[in-house]
Amino acid sequence: MKVVSLASGSKGNAYxxxxxxxxxxxxxxxxxxxxxERMCRTGFELASLAGVVVTHNxxxxxxxxxxxxxxxxDVPIFANLMTAEACEATNHQVKEDFFTLFENGQEFDLxxxxxxxxxxxxxxxxxxxFVVRADGKTYFxxxxxxxxxxxxxxKFREADVxxxxxxxxxxxxxxxxxxxxxxxxxxxNRGHLSNYQAAELVEEFAGKKLKKLFLxxxxxxxxxPHLALKETCEALKRIGRTDVDVEALEQFAPGRVYDA
Length: 260
Ligand SMILES: [Zn+2]
Ligand SMILES: [Zn+2]
Description:
- By secondary structure, the protein is of the alpha/beta class.
- It has one domain (2-259): Ribonuclease Z/Hydroxyacylglutathione hydrolase-like (Metallo-beta-lactamase, Chain A), CATH 3.60.15.
- It contains nine helices and 14 strands.
- The protein has helices at 32-41, 59-62, 65-71, 81-90, 150-156, 170-174, 180-187, 195-205, 225-238; strands at 2-7, 14-19, 22-26, 49-53, 77-79, 100-101, 108-110, 113-119, 128-134, 137-142, 161-165, 212-216, 245-248, 258-259.
- The N and C termini lie close together (5 Å).
- 48% of the residues are buried.
- Residues 10, 13, 58, 60-61, 144, 217 line the site of one zinc ion.
């Protein structure tokens, strides 16, 4: 199983999982042109795409979907009902048969992938994270969540490779000059994980199999890669796990391809 981030952050998200020559896209919040270009740069072709799974209906996770769907109408786009309805309500290009529906907690198969969607707390209708299994490996994916819940941690514990949000540094966010209501939204229980909260989840739930951790959805104004890395690497050190490779993901460039 290979995993790579094509874009990560509030200006667009797209993550790729590969197995047996087929790829699964988690979210598509970048343009189709950027998607193709970044897949190409990381050694993948659009033709390998078996399907797309959608975490929630915020723009930075879905904006590329309508063009992608026009270009590849036979590639299924999976979402739960409330996410599908929320997308239909706000985007006239998203029609009724646009999505293939899944239910949270119900595993489904797509080519070599077994996909398990699970609930996370965020300020949209019914947001999810995913556990994806293929090649005997387990990938955990959760961005855009307000709390490091135990139910999320229990999924994280299974992972060989994981993508976890590490959105902001609390001090930088508080002194950012942003409107207080926005700061409260980001810090709220249905907002985004801080570096501290991400590290907390990692410290409590990192499983024995974990080898690679991608820190995702870093705020451009209220975070620095070295701050996110420091917080999580110190947490891993405290539990004696200096063997885990941690990488902070970028908004405007793909990450490194990890071969699990
Ligand atoms: Zn987002
Ligand atoms: Zn979001």
